[in-house]
Specification:
heterodimer, A: 6-stranded mixed β-sheet, 3-stranded antiparallel β-sheet, globular, B: about 120 residues, 7-stranded mixed β-sheet, 4-stranded antiparallel β-sheet, 11 strands, about 0% helix
Chain lengths: ~110, ~120
Amino acid sequence: QSALTQPRSVSGSPGQSVTISCTGTSSDVGGYNYVSWYQHHPGKAPKVMIYEVSKRPSGVPDRFSGSKSGNTASLTISGLQAEDEADYYCCSYAGSYTVVFGGGTKLTVL
Amino acid sequence: EVQLLESGGDLVQPGGSLRLSCAASGFTFSNYAMSWVRQAPGKGLEWVSSISGSGGSTYYTDSVKGRFTISRDNSKNTVYLQMNSLRAEDTAVYYCAKDISSNSFFPYYGMDVWGQGTTVSVSS
């Protein structure tokens, strides 16, 4: 149950787009279409932004999109806004009724 | 409004025990698997345990197997995490989370509602 690999930090200016990668293995990200992404502002409850690789829960802006290729999933945020600044975590089903998270990526809006 | 409210976090000595509770409201509790996820200081999120809607199936990450027990009382809309033989590395904020799907016994697809967390500190 090794953590998925995410960049420690990414940054972008308001209005730009950023992509956060999440690399696993064929036993987790690559083996199932069960990748979700969470936005976490410190001290608050995490919020799901994407589930099942690319589905958006109601209320999540369409500026947020998800995709997957092989063992790597990606979260893209377009039209960056100041309120998007947060920590982002990917998560995948890892088989044998286990779940694994990524190490987290700090998004800074410049 | 769908809500989860955790409680029970405390400062406890190594080897001690603690029971966390998570009270749910605003949805049909028994229809959803529930999970506990933790975040150690300065670290990322870590899945700890999940339980099916009926309570008949439970799942754990390797590091807590044999020490932690997840359970639920559907009559009280509450899920619990009994933590025994606590270690310093169990120090974390513990979040309760609801399965995004009502049709599975495990949160394969994701978790759509999270509580604010309760803090567990294990130290002498």
